[in-house]
Amino acid sequence: MKERLPFFLFFLSGFSSLVYEVVWSRMLVLVFGNTTLATSLILGSFMAGLALGSYFWGKHFLYWKRRPLFLFGLLEVSTGIYALLLPMLINGATPIEIWLAGNLSLGFYPHAILRGFLCFVLILPPAFLMGGTFAVISGHLIRNRQKIGRDAALLYGLNTAGAVLGAGLSGFILVRELGHGGSTLLASGINFCVGAAAFCIDRMGDQSVGSFAEKEPVPLGSRQTGSDAVFKVVLIGLGVSGFCGLCYEVLWTRLLLLMVDNSVYSFTVILSVFLSGIAIGSLLLAPFAKRLSNPTLVFGLSQLGIGLIAYFFPFFVQIRSVHGTVQYYAFLCQMIFLMVLLPAILMGMALPLALCIRSAGKESKVAAEIGTLYAVNTLGGVVGSLAAGFFLIPFLGLQKTSLLLPVMNWLVGGTLVWYSLEGLPRKSLSTGIAAILLAGLFLSPQDLLKEKYAALAPGSRMIFYKEGVAATATIMDRPNGERTLFLNGIPQVRNDRTSLKTFKLMGALPCLFHEKPSKGLAITFGAGITSGTMASFVDTLDCVELVAEAPEIAEFFSAENGDVLKNGKVSLHINDARHFLLTSPKRYEVIVADATHPRGYDSWILFTKEFYELLKGRLEPGGIFSQWVPFHGMDLEQYMAIVKTFQSVFPNSSIWIIDHAHSLLFGFTGQEKMDFGRMVQRISGAGEILKPVGLEDPFTLLSHFSMGKGGMEKMLAKFPGIITDDSPRHLFFPLGATFGEQYGQWPKENALYIQQYSESMVPYLSNIGDSEEQRIANLNRLRVKRTKP
Question: What would be the CATH architecture of the domain defined by 499-785?
Answer without folding.
Answer: 3-Layer(aba) Sandwich (3.40)
